[in-house]
Design brief:
With 391 residues, this protein is mainly alpha-helical. Helix 8 runs antiparallel to helix 9. The protein is elongated, with a radius of gyration of 29 Å. The relative contact order is 0.04.
Length: 391
Amino acid sequence: ISQVFFALITGLNVNAFINARAIQKNETDPVQSTSLLKSVFGLTAILLLLPASYVTYLTYKSLVVQRMIIPDMDNEPLKLKWTEIFPLIPSIPNLSASAQPIEAIKGRYLYEAKKYDEALVLLNRGSAANPVIAYSEFLKGGLFFTIGKMDSAYINSMKAFYTRPRAKTYYQTLIAVLAKLKDTVNIQKAFDEAVKYRNEPYVWNLYILGMLNAQGKGRDPLLKIADSALHLFPGNADLMLRKREITQFMGAPVITKKGVDIAQAQIYYDAGVAAFSKAQAAAARKDEAGKIEAYKTAAGSFRKAAEFSPGNYVIFENAAIAYFNMGDFNTSLTYFNKVFALQTAVDGKSEYFAGVALYNLGKKEAGCKYLQIALSKGYKEAAEIIKTNCR
């Protein structure tokens, strides 16, 4: 649309210039001064369009770069390297097509590259460019959380969330900060605000997780909240997991042997789920390379989450399935064995995939054994494979 208006204005001025020149050639001397004035006006207008042409060109260059950068914003971690993209970003405009400050986007790249001081400079500029969406404050909240400056993390994450309480990532960052600060009062307030806009399992899940970490152990009131959430969203896997964790840590601390609470595991777990979804989307459009790359990212995120929550079988199961979907059956079995060692999975899903993996590796007897276990636990998909391949 901008290009159309630019072309229209250029055309009008060029036409004025040409007409003035034609009149100047055909008219007599007494009127020549008027014709000359028209000619000068047309030429001046064209010259004045040159700065606009430059701005339009820079905007075009920025939009080209944004086609690479904006999709990368969904990746955790980012895939593009700041050293490659920074030279491509022009000085203007200062906002992306989605209204995110360009300086804040650059700041995120430096933040993930652990260049925290340089990142903060850019994030502060981003705040000035667009204070309405609080994107810079959201990123600064995460940055300060990472480097352990919790007062600054609190100020920025609170500002970001209450500016945009519908934003899932803003809510997640604030809950992580408040859980670290053991601030149950503000966790409750943040939940009360978020649930007005999104009465969804995601909001309840982070609320329960934050409370569990802030309180330091499972308690009966929190267990009742988990039951209430499951009443609203029956069968939700994340909420069922939270209930198991509350029960598991009832009266016991929720700190793992690494000394990191399970809120950190949730961050990596969410990243793994996001990458898993991208892998499925790539598979649907028959992008084999994209599928494998996304499953690798998912598996890596789940492995990292498992370091912080080694008692959570779902994390190991998801890592195993990511490897299974890549065709790396041996590695998938390594993680399925971790699921079996915990002895907490009851739905037969891990046994089913482990059985198929073993069957694909030529270990028919062992594979059929696991498939039978899966079927006995109620995993109905195992029945057809047993009927066809385990006679």
